[in-house]
Amino acid sequence: MHPQYKADKPIDCPICSMKLVKFEPTPNGENKPMDSMPGMDGSSSSTSSQASNNTIYVDPQRQQLIGVQFAKAITKPLSKELRVVGKVSFDETKITHIHTKVTGYLENVFVDYVGKPVKKGDPLFTIYSPDLVATEQEYLLALRSNKELSKSSFEEVSFGSSSLLEATRKRLKLWDISDKEIEELEIEGKAKRELTFYSPVDGIVTERAAFGHGKFVNPEMDLYSIVDLSTVWIIGEVYEYEMSFVKLGQTVEIEMPYSDKKSLYIGKITYIYPVMDAKTRTAKIRIECKNPQYTFKPEMFVSMKIKINLGTHLVVPEDAVMDTGEEQYVFVD
């Protein structure tokens, strides 16, 4: 604005097109210099006695030149949003390892590749175990003996035969022989050369060491790893300065940034790891999420948003805050 141009009504300046403002003289009839603003030179005037040390006066013309704007301080609810990158992982509580409790040799392998889905009760493989066959024969012998000696007039004899039968039965059960298979053994009356092992859970085969006919196996070998992917863990990393906002049980919005379908999935923070990464200065959090359609696959990267309620506070526009590096302040009209 050009202060030398004056008008008797509010119009635009014909030189610079800025709106003219109403002229209002200072209390002493003179324009007040900006001597009390940090960094401005000027002598004090009589108005300083009417204002406190942290009060400055800027005349309307100068306000127009520097583009001063006014906004009301209001009370409103505040929220904060944390954006976290996460990686999908197995739910470690739903990983099942398949072992045999006897030594033997593989005969047939029904689950023959990694990634194959299995249901609880599906056959995995059959095994020939000389120890198991011998125990089955002992059980059949104890069963026949118990039938003959259970009616003995000597109590010790009948008790001993029943005890032997029960001990042999327990040995079979300790080797994971089901009641159904023991019942079939009793009906057929002869030992089976092969024993079939079944899947104890629903899931996806992620590791396999049962290969081919004749492979020797023992209880130390991990023949299969089966993982239930209906629930997955997502491991996210949160910066150290944001950790104070993260709490157990918070709801997390999850999305796959490279997916055509911008679908949101909901998870919850179930664990906050107690160790900080010294290199990245981040801490890990664990989010548990349902995965009924196997949309999330282990090692997949996802984006997550954590919305935090900060409560109701008095707020001003962000541009109104002056930051000196050591403190923040605003000007109040």
Describe it.
The structure is a single chain. The chain has helices at about 60-65, 130-150, 155-175, 180-190, and strands at about 75-90, 95-100, 105-110, 115-120, 125-130, 195-200, 205-210, 215, 225, 230-240, 250-255, 265-275, 280-290, 300-315, 320-325, 330. A hairpin with a 4-residue loop joins strand 15 (about 320-325) and strand 16. The protein contains 4 helices and 16 strands. Among the domains are: about 80-90 and about 230-315, Beta Barrel (Elongation Factor Tu (Ef-tu), domain 3), CATH 2.40.30.170; about 100-225, OB fold (Dihydrolipoamide Acetyltransferase, E2P).
Mean pLDDT: 83
Work out the strand percent. Answer: 25-35%
- Note the overall shape: rod-shaped
CATH-assigned homologous superfamily of one domain: RNA polymerase II/Efflux pump adaptor protein, barrel-sandwich hybrid domain
H and E string: HEEEEEHHHEEEEEEEEEEE
Please state the CA-atom Rg, rounded to the nearest Å: 41 Å
How many angstroms does the end-to-end distance come to?
23 Å
In the CATH hierarchy, what is the architecture of one domain at level 2? Beta Barrel
Class per helix and strand makeup: alpha+beta
What is the CATH topology assignment of one domain?
A: OB fold (Dihydrolipoamide Acetyltransferase, E2P)
Number of strands: 16
Weakly predicted, low-confidence segments: 31-51
How would you sum up the major sheet?
A: 6 strands, antiparallel, barrel
Which CATH class of one domain?
Mainly Beta
**Spatial strand sequence of the major β-sheet:** 1-10-13-12-11-14
Count of discrete alpha- or pi-helical segments spanning 4 or more residues: 4
Helix content: 10-25%
